[in-house]
Amino acid sequence: MIHPFLMIDGYNLMHAAGLARHNYGPGDLEVCRKRLLQQLSVRLNSVAARRTTVVFDAFGAHDDANRVQMSHGMSVVYAPAGTDADSEMERLIAAHSSPKQLLVISSDHRLHKAAQRRKAKAVDSEVFWESLDPASSSPSKPSSYQQQLTTTDRAKEFSNVEGVADSTDLTEDGVFDTDYLKDLESEIDE
């Protein structure tokens, strides 16, 4: 089974998941970040979590100490002081060792373009979140991405598949087309 590397625009996904607020009091932002990471952890299996990087702005950070942390098996990166998450994600995309295996999750089309330059895939945060949690959107009005993914496809792509034989076909999910997967598999086999 081929699992993509996921690079997530943390605050962008927080908004898509309905976890963001208009105003934050002391400590509220940290609570919202932790809630997002916890909810992601229950939606991703352990393999997907280990291949996931969530990037946040480093509001209030005065140095680069503890910029990279682990949470629920996922890597959490805070942008260096004086920069933002988008710039940090662009840097990480440019430096990624397997960009064709990378799926960038953000609704920021600047990041979509950065992904395309490296032949990585990109998907809007709302689409990604809905694909992980089919109950999060109205069943009477599913997104176009949800229409392409059956519940079984979602389960195979992002749920607990650890130890299951390689029977998943990710070509039907709207994110990975057949040519992309063939290229990916040939790179892995080399």
Structure description:
With 190 residues, this protein is an alpha/beta fold. The chain is 43% helix and 14% strand. It is built from nine helices and six strands, in the order E-H-H-H-E-E-E-H-E-H-E-H-H-H-H. A hairpin with a 2-residue loop joins strand 3 (68-71) and strand 4 (74-78). Helix 4 (85-95) packs parallel to helix 5 (109-117). Mean pLDDT is 76; it is low at 136-177.
If helices are DSSP runs of H or I spanning 4 or more residues, what is the number of helices?
9
CATH architecture term: 3-Layer(aba) Sandwich
Task: Give the percentage of residues in beta strands.
Answer: 5-15%
Strand order of the largest sheet: 3-4-2-1-5-6
Indicate the radius of gyration in whole angstroms.
16 Å
As a percent range, the share of helical residues equals: 40-55%
End-to-end distance, in Å? Answer: 16 Å
* Average predicted local confidence, pLDDT: 76
Note the overall shape.
globular
Would you identify the regions where 5 or more consecutive residues have pLDDT less than 50?
A: 136-177
The CATH top-level class label: Alpha Beta
- Reported by name, the CATH topology is Rossmann fold
Number of domains: 1
